Amino acid sequence: IIQDIDLDNNGMIDYIEFAEMMHPCQLPSFTKQCTEVGPLALATPSDEEIALMQRMSERLHTLAQEAADCGTKLLIDAEHLKYQPAIDSLVLELQQKFNDKSKTDRPVIFNTYQCYMKDAAERALVDLERSERFGFHFAAKIVRGAYLHHERSRAEELGYESPIHDSKEETDRCYDEVVEKLLRYRSEHGPGLEVMVASHNQGSIERAVHLMQRLGIQCADNPSVHFAQLFGMCDNLTFTLGKANFNAFKYLPYGPVGEVIPYLLRRAEENSSVLDKTGDEIHLLLDELKRRCSFV
What we know:
Blueprint: H1 2-5, H2 15-21, H3 27-31, H4 39-43, H5 47-70, E1 74-75, H6 84-98, E2 109-114, H7 120-134, E3 139-143, H8 148-158, H9 168-189, E4 194-198, H10 202-215, E5 225-230, H11 235-243, E6 247-251, H12 257-270, H13 272-275, H14 278-293
Parallel strand pairs: 1-2, 2-3, 3-4, 4-5, 5-6
Helix pairs in contact: 5-6, 7-9, 9-10
């Protein structure tokens, strides 16, 4: 094993190669050789959990294949930190198959990065390097995050450092930093990388647009940068982006009411600062209504 992960024979473990070996389904055969029970052994899935992951993988491959056949994208959302390693493993598996540079010019599978996490920028850059090393297109949806109280409470309960930034300002800086690094990479390396700026924060959107203009990234000619807001929120941002020929999307959740309502409540909490500006949007709607009525 050491020879496989110490590629330069310098006593240093190559993290990406090591992680490639540590697929969750392979962990039991690895950790059963450990002489003591440590964090990795505790995180090793049971036979039942492995069976569930394999079934989930099969369903995801079915969805990904349909997306690829239809020429559309499949964006895998983020979850609680305790679930994220398993999600990342499944997304990596899909990206290596459906974003393969030898088979497609554009990515199909997007992973999601929550920028209220302290390690968000590092994770995005490691995954970007991984995509280069293994020959698949990197694609990311960048969000701020929706499980703030849960993650802090769990960290306090289990006695580890909170994985969440200590302030909204730090989260905002992280968000803008991740978007900037990915846009600069796209500018320097050409098409292939795609990023979705999923935000209701006007400042973050304006920074991304201005940086695209400085870097010469033209969405109309090569749609590698996308913007998205929830259906019914910040229409003034979405419509302005669309009118300016940026790739603007409306995100429409659907499903059983019992599942959709909690999701929307998390989005409302995540975007509480946006809700404070509802009055501004109402004024814009009234101005537009008056403008239209004046032509009647």
